[in-house]
Amino acid sequence: xxxxxxxxxxxxxxxxxxxxxxxxxxxxxxxxxxxxxxxxxxxxxxxxxxxxxxxxxxxxxxxxxxxxxxxxxxxxxxxxxxxxxxxxxxxxxxxxxxxxxxxxxxxxxxxxxxxxxxxxxxxxxxxxxxxxxxxxxxxxxxxxxxxxxxxxxxxxxxxxxxxxxx
Amino acid sequence: xxxxxxxxxxxxxxxxxxxxxxxxxxxxxxxxxxxxxxxxxxxxxxxxxxxxxxxxxxxxxxxxxxxxxxxxxxxxxxxxxxxxxxxxxxxxxxxxxxxxxxxxxxxxxxxxxxxxxxxxxxxxxxxxxxxxxxxxxxxxxxxxxxxxxxxxxxxxxxxxxxxxxx
Amino acid sequence: xxxxxxxxxxxxxxxxxxxxxxxxxxxxxxxxxxxxxxxxxxxxxxxxxxxxxxxxxxxxxxxxxxxxxxxxxxxxxxxxxxxxxxxxxxxxxxxxxxxxxxxxxxxxxxxxxxxxxxxxxxxxxxxxxxxxxxxxxxxxxxxxxxxxxxxxxxxxxxxxxxxxxx
Lengths: 166, 166, 166
Known about the structure:
3 copies of one chain form a homotrimer. The first copy, chain A, is an all-beta fold. Chain A has a single domain, classed as UDP N-Acetylglucosamine Acyltransferase, domain 1 (3 Solenoid). Helix content of chain A is about 0%, strand content about 30%. The first copy, chain A, has strands at about 15-20, 20, 25-30, 35, 40, 45, 50, 55, 60-65, 70, 75, 80, 85, 115, 120, 125, 130-135, 140, 145, 155, 160. In chain A, the strands form 4 sheets. The first copy, chain A, has an 8-stranded mixed sheet with strand order 3-6-9-12-15-18-20-21, with no helix packed on it. In chain A, strands 2-5-8-11-14-17 form a 6-stranded parallel sheet, with no helix packed on it. A 4-stranded parallel sheet of chain A has the order 1-4-7-10, with no helix packed on it. The radius of gyration of chain A is 16 Å and the shape is globular. The interface between A and B is medium-sized, with 26 and 32 residues.
């Protein structure tokens, strides 16, 4: 049975951690900004990372510096999320709603994203809302992923395609 | 008449805010780094955002985490600036000037950028110096925008082109 | 002869600087995260920058905000590293090793990167492991550089190619 705690295993300066659940031996570096998320045991989270409420991160993942993980993202076990990776959960984001006020959560549809176990997301990749990435898949650095990626596949480029289709 | 203040409406830890002007009800999250800029009423600014001196941000905008907004950028009202968006104000940046010393402001030409009202800049997009983006335009996630974008147009890719030209 | 110190020339809040060596007149902005690196005299390092152990930065460089410089990167003198530039030192990163535990340094091969004097890396570019960029070269904003770039050449796009080959 795994047990959860409201703080990571290490100490570091300049962190904001609010209402999160951490498995055992989680390491969160300085300048991390986490709120409302759940992080599995053994995972390491780098500096300048933001993880939003209702994101779920598995066990033994590496979430590298400058990554942004939004609400609606579910990440399996053993996943590598490279530096500066950005997840997007809204197809046509707008700052304001029809009434001219700021857009509120009920003004848009959250598009979930799931990342299978042992997948790798290369640095600076962008994963668009609604995408499923299969277990063991590898996403090239700088790719923009707009479609599902099968288990074990490697995709690169903008938009991301299987390497041999390029 | 709008009134301005030298601090945002909310409190947050780990912020640097120097010589800025804020309209009413501006929210600035932790780990923001703002200096010398003006931000219109109702706008929300995320974590790990840097906004440089002489940038102008309109009212009711959303400036998402990890965005970088440089000097010379003027953003209208109701604009969505996605996570990790980067503005560039120099066509051929160099670290040093001809004399071997560090380049100083007078060693390069600042290329202004303007973003029309209600436009959306997708996450991780890069907007190059000298570009005008029209009102209501939508820039795809990860695009590199090197030319003007007309009002209401949608552009994607590197370099960014109208969707139906891809 | 140059002399080194364990702190930069300026003061700033919210910095983490551990086991670094700085030449004279180095400026490091707030929200920087540096450990185990060496930075030459006169270089300026922006906010939200992370520089890892065993990275070497030359003299009179500009390392702009949100850049990530990893172990194995050697940067010459007078180099411009744009905002959000990311270096990668591992061709096929994985979170875990064959035994299911977190990958450790000995589980992967570090691919070094070298950047020649007076080169410019445009904002949001990604430089892959094993690449050499020649002196005076210019890398376009948003490019993903997967091959060596000759001295003085300009490359753009994903993957980066000489401008006239696009």
